[in-house]
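Quick note —
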Amino acid sequence: MNQPSVKACLIKEWQAFRLAMQFLTVLPIARVLPVERALPVTREPQVEPEAGPETQGRALIWYPAVGLVLGGMLTILAGCLPLPFYLTAAVVVAVWVILTGGLHLDGVADCADAWMGGLGDRDKTLRLLKDPLCGSMGVLSLILLLLLKTTALAVLITQGSWLWLWAIPLLSRLSLLLLFLTTPYIRPQGLGGVIAQHFPKPLAWGVILAVSIMTLLVLPLLLWLLWLVVVLLVFGCVRMATMKRLQGFTGDGAGALVELVEVALLLAATCLLVGT
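Predicted structure written out below.
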């Protein structure tokens, strides 16, 4: 059997990374269309193929790398803005939302509405999760989350600890790998279902281990230990809630996990600064 060439493997990984960037950010990058959305091929066969299920599943492995790109951009922005600390924090959070297209914030709002309006009923909760309208609980959850993010980031900026901001989007998206590895995705249709069926599980565990070691070597030990506990606690709470109510998770739950991990990491770093 012919083994794929190094070039073919690199092209495949580049496609997966581009697809992850395309889904998680609004950054201008050449689009890789899923097969069902692909236009007819009009060029020679050597042109990169459209993203099939394997590439879509493999894109999950690159989510932490996308988080690292976002975190790096936000860290540079926080250090370069010639503004008072509170305005810098507000601008950085606003850019944070813009760069991600509010993707995960939508999950927070949908989950808040569905969990409150679902009244413990699985079917009603699932119906509310699909409702495109945002209710009062969704609006309140977004206000509170963005307020906490902004004020916590303002404290980090005043203390000169904004340099560790790069790790927060990285770790929050790393938690998605853990979610897909340990929790069933309950809607087989759509991108989430394709990812759940086709992402390489051993490689996902390897990425989790590699990122954990990398951040251990770079971050202050106390901060790394605190953030490890925080990520596991938030992940455990989200997983327990989704399993109890839905017996699995949806895309909205994954988005909510990312945002909750991010705000929890910011608050934990702030508490560490205040307590030392």
